[in-house]
Amino acid sequence: MSDATIPHAPPLSTRKGFPLSAYLICAGGIIWREALRFLHQRQRFVSAMVRPLLWLFIFAAGFRQVLGVSIIPPYETYVLYEVYIAPGLVGMILLFNGMQSSLSMVYDRETGTMKTLLVSPLPRWFLLVSKLFAGVAVGILQVYVFFAIAWFWEVQPDWIGYLYALPAIMLAGLMLGALGMLLSSLIQQLENFAGVMNFVIFPMYFASSALYPLWRVRESSPLLYQICVFNPFTHAVELIRFALYQQFNLDAFVIVVGCTAVFLGGAIIAYDPARGLISRKRQ
Amino acid sequence: MPDGSITATTNPRDASIKALSVEGVSHAYGQRKALNDVSFHVPQGSFTALLGPNGAGKSTLFSLITRLFNVRHGTIRILGHDLTREPGEALRRLGVVFQARTLDLDLSISQNLVYHAALHGISRKPAKARIAEILASSELSNRLREKARNLSGGQLRSIEIVRAFMHRPRLILLDEPTVGLDIRSRAAILSEVRRLVREEGVSVLWATHLIDEIGDSDRVVVLHHGQVLAEGFVPEIVATEGAKTIGDAFTRLTGIRTRPPGPQEAAA
């Protein structure tokens, strides 16, 4: 090497396995890298904010009269439509963020940086979970910036609600991130990612309780209602909605936890060289 | 290890343990066999060249050794650790330079190296100390804060090699590391890697299709159409094939004529 002379002392430790600190350092490194990438991509942050805020400022204002919301749990009184769709928009942020993380994994695979992650000696499942948490951490940051802006738009739950909502937001982020991770294992090229927009993001978002209460959906289309109930995104939104008003929605919690386990399990299997799809594809 | 860093546990002086042992490994993409019953080993402290033309199966073999692909047929051991049964113990002893660039171009050089260290359980402080140690005499030490995308191809490759050494591995795999570099950079990288083998006892598996990267005293594994055609030190292979040079021996084994790289090829 023209530039570096590499000193190389042989390691002498006789310890086998990995100390807990190694896991923590590794997870911290993965989260740190994701945060750095996010900060370097300011456009990504701006677009992540603009999307839900457009819905809040324009769509919600326009449809306030048309889509009046009756008193349904967790609300104890009539609420503005802006207030109703705020949890759905939080879900939208997490959904897009999860898919963005998936896109970034496909990009990493194409550019080769994914190989650096996958040849780490720590267990592959741990690397993927760390990657997932890194994506969720970025998503949570976006959600609370959104809450801060929405507060000026009359979306003002009790301040303790923001605290209650944090675990729900994290869980919903994990579910959607795990789904994105699973999808990234199935997508071979970056160009194919547009399909995710058409076949995953839009159907999940629109066929849910994010924009309209389910009772209204059932009135107009029982079939669509069933689809909405089947859609895990509906339950992620409801989990957040209830938590924001300091209530716990057990059904939503169980479904979101279950879906997270299934999606994450699928992603770990897909990225496992022993069982997954990766090694069957020509790199 | 108070800093949480991971270090290898095999006594590097136990020479009976091979740095890398590949036994009966086969791999196929669908119906197409990329590797067919491949067996060879890399002794500790040796520079072993994996010589083969493009498409010979070198990169597939590297994907198996780095566990990007699963070993479905055969066994791979790194410093005695079975890659399938003890992947963590095996991979912690391994440093890799992939053929394609794998640095994150949006991060700085320092951030790339610290990130790699973290993936091996090495915290920021010892990682930065290691970076300073490795790059002490390098002009790149003044460019640590620059984004990787500002570096030339040769400099990127140098950083990737530095990165492969960050966690003090005992075996280094380099998959055609000089591809795309000019003659001066190629010679410098080769020379530095050979120095490490000579002075530090690191084991190296150097994949290449360029005959002129092979020294007279190197071990060579000739891979062609997914099969090992010859394995041994250069003089042994040359004698066995009744050839004058390793280039001639390679031609006799594979039927492919060799020539030294022209200026354009070397610069490509």
TrEMBL record, chain A:
ABC transmembrane type-2 domain sequence ranges: 43-274
UniProt superkingdom: Bacteria
Membrane protein topology class: Multi-pass membrane protein
Transmembrane segments: 20-40, 52-72, 78-96, 132-153, 159-183, 195-215, 252-271
Keywords, in A-Z order: Cell membrane, Membrane, Transmembrane, Transmembrane helix, Transport
Predominant subcellular localization, coarse grouping: membrane
Record-level GO cellular component terms: ATP-binding cassette (ABC) transporter complex
Protein name, UniProt field: Transport permease protein
Source organism of the structure: Jiella flava
UniProtKB/TrEMBL annotation, chain B:
Keywords, comma-separated and alphabetical: ATP-binding, Nodulation, Nucleotide-binding, Transport
InterPro entries: AAA+_ATPase, ABC_transporter-like_ATP-bd, ABC_transporter_ATP-binding, ABC_transprt_ATP-bd_su_PQQ, P-loop_NTPase
Start and end residues of each ABC transporter domain: 20-250
Spans through the membrane: none
Domain of life, per lineage: Bacteria
Example GO molecular function: ATP binding
Family: Belongs to the ABC transporter superfamily.
NCBIfam families to which the protein is assigned, alphabetical: PQQ_ABC_ATP (TIGR03864)
UniProt name for this protein: ATP-binding cassette domain-containing protein
Origin species: Jiella flava
